[in-house]
Write a structure and sequence with these properties.
68 residues; mainly alpha; binds zinc ion
Length: 68
C-alpha cells in the first residue's frame, strides 16, 4: 500500500520524511525536467567537501563583512 503522493511535474521534488512516509512540502515551481527548485537543488548537490568548507568559511565571512 502506498500513501505516497508524488509531486506534480513542474513542482519541486524535495522530499521529507522517514521510514517510507515521504511527503513533498516544497511547493516551489520548477521548469520541466528539473527536479528541485534552486533552494533545494543547492542542498541536494552540495558535496561533503563543499559543506565543510562553507562551515569553516562562514564565521570569517561574517567578520569580514562586519569590519568593512
Ligand atoms: Zn524546493
Amino acid at each position: 500500500m502506498s500513501m505516497i503522493s508524488l509531486p506534480r511535474s513542474g513542482q519541486c521534488k524535495w522530499a521529507e520524511g522517514t521510514g517510507g512516509n515521504y511527503y513533498f512540502p516544497c511547493k516551489n515551481r520548477v521548469t520541466p525536467g528539473v527536479s528541485y527548485c534552486d533552494e533545494h537543488r543547492a542542498l541536494v548537490y552540495i558535496s561533503p567537501e563543499e559543506r565543510r568548507r562553507q562551515r569553516s568559511e562562514a564565521p570569517q565571512l561574517v567578520q569580514r563583512k562586519a569590519a568593512a
